């Protein structure tokens, strides 16, 4: 368990997320189902750590992870890739449906402050979205989603940016 789970949030760690995501992609290809991958980064998190300290930052990460998880379906896969960056795999979700699913995730963070022992923290979340194609691995799709994430950050944050399929 320690080798596959992030000790702070209880989510899958990077290596385990990639392993399970690649396995899910193989199943989805076999069943001819679409797969969406989203990369999330908390907007304003660095300020929490810098101003309130790492204990408050850890509390915020834990609460954010719970909110994200609660906004997903049981079939979805979530992992903490590092820092305040999370990845989600949405099996069976097409490019037409992705924004609807991920808006719930964005709203779960943004619509109400996260309360830590240090106080309230109003955060946003920028989400980059990409889609699995016949030849892509989860690593390749994460790279595309990361490009979209960076685009969203530079365009004002707290938004969803999607690769055009």
Give an overview in words.
The chain has a five-stranded mixed sheet, with helices on both faces. The radius of gyration is 15 Å and the shape is globular. The chain has five helices and seven strands, in the order H-E-H-H-E-E-H-E-E-E-H-E. The chain has 165 residues and is an alpha+beta fold. It has helices at 14-30, 45-52, 54-70, 98-110, 138-154, and strands at residues 35-43, 77-82, 85-91, 114-116, 119-121, 124-131, 160-162. The mean pLDDT is 94.
Q: Tally the helices: what do you get?
A: 5
> Helices and strands: which structural class?
alpha+beta
Shape: globular
**What is the percent of helical residues?**
40-55%
Largest sheet: 5 strands, mixed
Q: DSSP strand (E) fraction?
A: 15-25%
Question: How would you write the strand order of the largest sheet?
Answer: 2-3-1-6-7
Radius of gyration: 15 Å
Number of strands: 7
Order of helices and strands: HEHHEEHEEEHE
Multimer state? single chain
Distance N terminus to C terminus?
36 Å
- The whole-number mean of residue pLDDT values reads 94
Low-confidence parts? none
Itemize the secondary structure elements and their pairings.
Blueprint: H1 14-30, E1 35-43, H2 45-52, H3 54-70, E2 77-82, E3 85-91, H4 98-110, E4 114-116, E5 119-121, E6 124-131, H5 138-154, E7 160-162
Parallel strand pairs: 6-7
Antiparallel strand pairs: 1-3, 1-6, 2-3, 4-5
Helix pairs in contact: 2-3, 3-4
């Amino acid at each position: 368990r320690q080798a596959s789970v992030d000790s702070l949030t209880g989510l899958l760690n990077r290596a385990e997320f990639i392993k399970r995501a690649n396995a899910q992609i193989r199943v989805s290809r076999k069943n001819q189902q679409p797969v969406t991958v989203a990369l999330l980064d908390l907007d304003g998190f660095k300020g929490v750590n810098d101003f309130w300290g790492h204990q408050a930052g850890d509390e915020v990460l834990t609460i954010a992870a719970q909110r994200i998880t609660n906004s997903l379906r049981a079939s979805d896969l979530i992992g903490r890739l590092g820092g305040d960056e999370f990845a989600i795999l949405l099996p069976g979700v097409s490019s037409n449906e992705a924004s609807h699913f991920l808006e719930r995730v964005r709203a779960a963070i943004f619509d109400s402050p996260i309360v830590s022992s240090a106080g309230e923290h109003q955060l946003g979340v920028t989400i980059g979205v990409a889609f699995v194609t016949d030849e892509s691995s989860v690593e390749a799709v994460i790279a595309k989603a990361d490009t979209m994430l960076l685009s969203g950050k530079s365009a004002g944050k707290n938004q969803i940016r999607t690769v055009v399929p």
